[in-house]
Amino acid sequence: MSLLQATKNGIYCERAQVYIDPIGKVKRALVTHAHADHSRYGHQSYLAHHHSVPIMKHRLGDIQVEGIEYGEIIRINGVAFSFHPAGHIPGSAQIRVEHKGEVWVAAGDYKREEDGISAPFEVVPCHHFITESTFALPVYRWKPQAEVFDDIHHWWKKNAEAGKTSILTGYSLGKAQRLLKHLDHGFGPIYCHSAVDNINTMFREQSIVDIPQIPKVEGAEKKDDYRRAIVVAPPSVQNSSWLNKFKPYALGISSGWMALRGARRRRNADRGFILSDHADWDALNNTIKDTGAESIYVTHGYREIYARWLREQGYDAKPLEADYDGEAD
Question: 327 in a domain, yes or no?
């Protein structure tokens, strides 16, 4: 690696003395998005898309963070940096790095399907592309979003007819807002967990995403209010006493991991819905082809396997060590 290099603290641009999604504590961090495995506490200064800024402040406290718009160019010691939509969650970005005609793109986490809440993914041509590999196996192929929500609505209706509350889990930043955006309010009442409500409130106040006003579960006057309702909550509620207030209930999980046989059963869920905020197998391969990159560097997920497969397809591909969780839920 030349313009960018892998270090123990993360991806580093020595000429500009900045890190992209650093792992260890550094002087200046360029952050692709506000999820905790990419936006970490302890850096002296941060640069992120301006939609990520309020979430980062909420989660990390009193930090020195600057916002940047998509396509805006900032130059540091002759190196040009710009942020481009990644489609992963609101505010997520690919970071383009250019110096003397050499172009790198660090994609962070990304998704090709338009989800209705995030700026749609944009292909950024480059010579060197750093890709995630969270779901880099052929078993991971997503159905269109509309079909997944048809399945969710059918499940919700069936539970309501049986007098059960539908509990649907999704990561509180990104996935939960995607669920709330596309759930049909005509099917019945919709509630959300307070952790989800916190993010919803920030998105509305900052005009980041037009999320419907969803009451928190704490706002229900009595237990019967939850009958026939669907409740969107973070994955942390699974196997917790918090669920007891909704008995009888049915538990559904929305995650790309639901594509694996047995994943739903291991999490004691009634249903699994394959809905991910990451690129699936086909989208990963199409993206790498679309960038026109000569060299591919593979981070978190199935990096060793995927890099080897890419080499077999004729790419110059290498795995990179990076301490990212991928799909945290």
Answer: no
What is the CA angle 100-102-105, rounded to 5?
A: 135
Distance of CA 151 to the CA centre of its chain: 22
Residue 234: C-alpha distances to residues 141, 173, 204 (Å):
24, 9, 19
Tell me the pLDDT tens digit for each residue of 113-127: 999 999 999 999 999
How far is C-alpha 218 from the geometric centre of its chain's CA atoms?
A: 27
Query: Following DSSP, what letter does each residue of 256-305 receive, concatenated?
Result: GGGGSTTHHHHTT-SEEE---SS--HHHHHHHHHHHT-SEEEEEEESHHH
Print the SS3 string covering 226-268: HCCCEEEECHHHCCCHHHHHHCCEEEEEECHHHHCCCHHHHCC
Place of tokens 């941060």: 46
Please report, as a single letter, which amino acid is at residue 220: A
Full residue range of the structural domain in which residue 308 is found: 5-139+278-319
Evaluate if residue 310 carries a pLDDT over 90: yes
Please give the angle made by the CA atoms of 158, 161 and 164, to the nearest 5 degrees.
85
What is the Cα–Cα distance from 110 to 93, expressed in whole angstroms? 8
pLDDT tens column, 224-233:
678 889 999 9
Please state the φ and ψ torsions of residue 114, each to the nearest 5 degrees: -70, 125
* pTM for this predicted structure: 0.94
Give 183's contacts (C-beta < 8 A, 6+ positions apart). 149, 152, 153, 190, 230, 232
On whether both 158 and 242 belong to a single domain, the answer is yes
